[in-house]
Write a structure and sequence with these properties.
Blueprint lengths: L2 H15 L6 H17 L4 H15 L2 H4 L4 H16 L19 E6 L6 H15 L4 E5 L7 H12 L2 E2 L8 H14 L4 E5 L8 H14 L3 E7 L4 H14 L3 E5 L8 H10 L3 E5 L7 E3 L2 H8 L5 H11 L2 H12 L5 H13 L2 H6 L6 H9 L5 H11 L3 H5 L6 H11 L3 H39 L2
Parallel strand pairs: 1-4, 1-5, 2-3, 2-4, 5-6, 6-7
Antiparallel strand pairs: 7-8
Helix pairs in contact: 1-2, 1-5, 2-3, 3-5, 5-12, 6-7, 8-9, 10-11, 15-18, 18-20, 20-21
Length: 454
């Protein structure tokens, strides 16, 4: 998300940073480009006008014009205003949603059909179960869409979260009452109610949602919207909020939305915060929407905290400690390399990792231009998997006939095998240098000492 906007804003601010001083004309020229970039990113016109107006008011102050680094000051002002635009004034709940209520806390999921509401319900349930250690019950109140209730039951099995048993012919209001009784009886902490959607907003849809809300008295009413629909998502959010009084928004498919205008407009137009974003199809591909981190990503500053958190979630601790001990001894074999490849894939691949690193936009563009195929990670894993244990531990055994066998077994070519071996040999050489320097030596001399050895 925001890839196109990040690239265009990056070009504007790169030019600002190179200037030793800034006049009001310079600021105005830069803001015209920012305005165009935001409009092309599908940000609502009223939001763009208000945003650029507030930035200009702060940027033409004497503190900026006379600053030693005026370009950097303007970037900081834009960053701070982006944080405010995205909802930075509101504290972020650790769970992503409000759980400060008597159990069972009821979360009502609303939205149009096809927005990813049922899948998002299961993602939230998994997040609450694994991160918050909550006992969760899910219930589908969608009696209109064929197999909607069965879909939630299947997802419940996949994420290992209980779902309310299906009673054929039962109406949504009755399902809501039964779900509440079951959640109370079984001591559940959270009850997620997945309501029916439509292909468009209608009176019947809203009336049903209001009736269920009156029965369940939800702590949270979360609107699920598809980021790919752009400004239609913003209009949808406004309508649902006026009718139901939603407490927060969950945006799905943000990984497929390069513009991000809906996310930038949503809070300003509706007054309701984006609480969670769906970043992929996997059950754990759900993140808390944190305005300061999102603003940093938009401006190419990265999200190192988010990257560390993602690593902490995906790293297998025992495996990481085992590799760390080997690295300290200067040991590194192809099994270790395969482990590192799996870790990169679990963290979202090369693009997922790079998107959270600062000042990486130009590198990503170069990689895209070079048509770097992230499937190469899977191919490299397949090559290593086609080797015997002895071959993985002693790469010198890999003669021409063994390489042909490995290439055939992994569906690759001998050239692919040779490239992997060359990459491994380079990594192994660096690891051995680290081992010779020792932990204290590396800490004392730092990476500069290691680089001097190349």
């Amino acid at each position: 998300m925001f890839e196109s906007l990040t690239g265009k804003l990056g070009e504007v601010f790169d030019r600002l940073r190179k200037r030793g001083a800034l006049s009001e004309a310079d600021v105005d020229a830069a803001l015209r480009e920012v305005r165009v970039a935001l409009l092309e990113a599908d940000v609502a016109l009223s939001v763009v006008k208000d945003f650029t107006g507030r930035v200009r008011l702060a940027a033409v102050g004497q503190d900026v014009i006379r600053s030693v680094t005026p370009g950097q000051m303007v970037v900081k002002i834009v960053h701070d205003q982006l944080v405010e635009l995205l909802g930075g004034g509101q504290p972020v709940d650790e769970a992503g949603i409000n759980l400060r209520a008597a159990a069972p806390v009821v979360v009502l999921m609303v939205g149009l059909q096809g927005s990813g509401k049922t899948t998002t319900t299961a993602k939230i349930a998994l997040r609450l179960k694994t991160r918050e250690r909550k006992k969760v019950l899910m219930a589908s109140l969608d009696t209109r869409r064929p197999a909607a209730q069965e879909q939630l039951a299947v997802l419940g099995t996949q994420v290992d979260v209980a779902t309310l048993p299906i009673v054929v012919g039962e109406q949504p209001e009755a399902i809501a009452r039964r779900a509440l009784e079951t959640a109370r009886r079984e001591g559940c902490d959270v009850l997620l109610l997945d309501t029916a959607g439509r292909l468009h907003i209608d009176d019947e849809l809203m009336a049903e949602a209001r009736a269920i809300g009156a029965i369940a008295a939800p702590t949270e009413t979360l609107l699920v919207v598809d980021a790919m629909t752009g400004q239609d998502a913003v209009n949808l959010a406004r309508a649902f909020n006026e009718q139901l009084g939603v407490t927060g928004i969950v945006m799905t498919r943000v990984d497929g939305d390069a513009r991000g205008g809906a996310a930038l407009s949503m809070r300003a137009v509706t007054g309701r915060p984006i609480k969670l974003i769906g970043t992929g199809e996997k059950p754990d591909a759900l993140e808390i929407f944190q305005p300061d981190r999102i603003a940093s990503r938009i401006l190419g500053m990265g999200d190192i905290v988010g990257l560390v958190e993602r690593a902490a979630e995906t790293v297998e601790r025992d495996e990481a400690e085992k590799i760390a001990r080997k690295l300290q001894k200067g040991e590194f074999d192809l099994d270790d390399m395969a482990s590192q490849l799996r870790q990169i894939r679990r963290m979202g691949g090369l693009s997922g990792v790079m998107g959270m690193l600062p000042s990486i936009g130009q590198i990503k563009q170069k990689l895209a231009g070079a048509k770097v195929d992230e499937r190469v990670l899977r191919r490299q894993e397949a090559i290593i998997g086609s080797m015997t244990r002895i071959e993985r531990r002693n790469v010198k055994l890999l003669n021409a006939s063994r390489k042909r066998r490995i290439a055939g077994g992994s569906g690759t070519s001998v050239e692919d095998v040779n490239r992997l071996i060359k990459q491994y040999m380079e990594m192994s050489r660096i690891v051995k240098q680290v081992g010779r320097m020792g932990q204290k030596g590396l800490a004392r001399q730092g990476m500069a000492a290691l680089m001097r050895r190349h």
